[in-house]
Amino acid sequence: MSNTYPVSGTGLGLRRAFIGPLTENPPSNVGFYELSPENWINLGGKYAKQLRALTEQFPFVAHGLSLSIGSPDPLDTNFVKDIAKFIKQHQIKIYSEHLSYCSDGGHMYDLMPIPFTEEAVIHVADRIIQVQDILGERIAIENASYYAAPGKEMEEIDFINAVIQKADCQLLLDINNIYVNSVNHQYNAIEFMKQLPAERISYAHIAGHYNEADDIIIDTHGADIIDPVWALLDTAYEHFGVFPTLLERDFNIPPLAELLLEVNTIEQAQIRHESNSKKKLANG
Question: Which of 21, 29, 133, 174 is the most buried (most CB within 10 A)?
Fold first, then answer.
């Protein structure tokens, strides 16, 4: 796997219930872990010590929940400084956030869609640049799921690419979000994905979802991954090459052993595509 990625192989989202088992018997097929810093920054006692022991032993990435990068509210620079300290303390390989917002005069408990406009591109990119300046490093922005597109003046793919280019940031490629949006907004998932910049990918998410109706999917991270999403990951590996890929599971969390079965599916896909790439090179 390319050394340009901050981590390698397969990843798993850290849950407090998993800390003991992961410490006592770390799974061999997990190459890195992800956490949400908001859940750990002000935590002390036993869990803080256990987290430190894990981050000293394994590579970690951080996926934020409340930066609210698209918000009209002023950027919370004190929070970003707290993130900077946390990154340094735990040797976090990269910090990522959603291309959305969750505050407007107060915190909202949902991720809201940013209008796909040129004005929003400038606003969001400027805020990403401000965050990167405070952290002293690039962050990754995740393509988000959304259910409405208020004030839309440009296509989603053009908006994402414009933000990434103007902010000079990285991309957290969410495979499931592409699939969910392609069904909800009726576009071709493969065509959309292939327009994203390969050189900006830091790592990827893959997850399950909930079918509200035939044409409405809710991005829940609360179910097993379905075959069309696995197929989209295969296409992504074929198109971009193999990149680090993390299993997200935030609700209806099964025992660790069951999650590791899906991690194993990711690993086998990576092995298969790397092997195919080597064969193609060998055959000229």
Answer: 174
